[in-house]
Structure formats: structure tokens, C-alpha cells
Amino acid sequence: MRELKILVINNYGQFCHLIHRSVRDLDMDTKIVPNTTPVEEILEEEPDGLILSGGPAMERAGMCSEYVESIDLPILGICLGHQVIAKTFGGEVGSGNSGGYADIVVEVVEEDDLLKGLGPKTSVWASHADEVVRMPEEFIQLARSDICECEAMRHKERPLFGVQWHPEVAHTEKGERLLMNFFGVCETY
């Protein structure tokens, strides 16, 4: 796989720099960009894809909804990034029944480009303080768990993906595989 340029959008979560490092360690050109960066400046960077990081709250997600609506590139939303994608397309985000970070067993419902090689079940590190409680109509459910029906999703037509869990942390099995799968989408888009 050729080196791609992946921008990590900083939503001020505790793992943003770890996402950046994970992408760099997988031999990709990467840069952390504030979530207040205008769309034009994002496009001037000529990225092959975007990763929307996790973060503390929807109110701190800056211009992420605008990026998702107007930038025609593969986008992976992680935790808050996943929730922003859902909300942007009319889904619903609410408080989860299981709060802080924990090891969760995820069932792969649809093994698409993002989740190929991860199923049928995988152990991941996730917080469910907030979660997608109703998926947008234009999206397909990719994964679920005993505590959350929408652990992962993708847009039916555009290369937009969201995962509730954190592929960048060591506690997540096959996290690097998920990131490499996303890079594969970026390479062929």
C-alpha cells in the first residue's frame, strides 16, 4: 500500500494523539488538525482520508458536521466522531447504560470493507457514556454488542464509517487491522 495522507481531526479527546501515532506507525503521512479548521484549508492539505477523533462532548465537535456533509473523501469517525456522523445524518445520540471505558465484545453483523477480518466477534475498548441510539436511515449497521445496537455503521453510498470503540488502543483486538482496512478504502477511493 502506498503512503497516504490521513488527517486526524482533533475533537479534544484523550486518545487523539494516540490515533495520530497509530496512523504514523502504520507508515501513513498524518497530521492532527483542529476541528475548527475551515473546509477549504482541510482540502488544501490534499488528504486521502479523515479520521474524526473521540472527544468529551458533542458541543466540542467544532466543524465536524460540516466536514462530513461537504468533504467527498473517506471519513472514519471514532467514538464522538461516530456520533457526529450519526447526528449529522438525522440519527440520534443519547446516554448509554454502561458509562466509562470497558472491554466490550462486539459482534460483526456486516463484514464490509472496514470490518473485514475482524469477525464474527472481537474484543474492543470502548466508552458508552454516549452512544448512537438510533442509526440514520442512509446507514447500514456493521456491528453490535450486548449493550449497544450500533457499535459500527457505514453510509450506504458514501465512504463514511463510524465505530463506537477505539481501534487505536492496545486493549482493542485487531485495531490495526481496522485502520489498515480504512486505509484500503482511502487508497481505492
Low-confidence runs of at least 5 consecutive residues: none
Q: Which percent bin holds the helix content?
A: 10-25%
The overall average pLDDT, rounded, is 96
CATH class: Alpha Beta
CATH architecture classification name: 3-Layer(aba) Sandwich
Fraction in beta strands: 25-35%
Query: Biggest sheet, strands in spatial order?
Result: 2-1-3-4-11-10-9-6-7
**CATH topology term:** Rossmann fold
How would you characterize the largest beta sheet?
9 strands, mixed
Distance between the termini: 13 Å
The CATH superfamily bears the name Class I glutamine amidotransferase (GATase) domain
Q: Which class of secondary structure composition applies to the elements?
A: alpha/beta
Along the chain, the helix and strand elements come as EHEHEHEHEEEEEEEH
Number of domains: 1
Number of strands: 11
- The whole-angstrom Rg is 15 Å
What this model shows, in words?
About 25% of the residues lie in helices and about 30% in strands. The chain is α/β, with parallel strands linked by helices. The protein has one domain (about 5-189): Rossmann fold, CATH 3.40.50. The strands form two sheets. A nine-stranded mixed beta sheet has the order 2-1-3-4-11-10-9-6-7, with helices on both faces. The protein is globular, with a radius of gyration of 15 Å. The model has no long low-confidence stretch (mean pLDDT about 95).
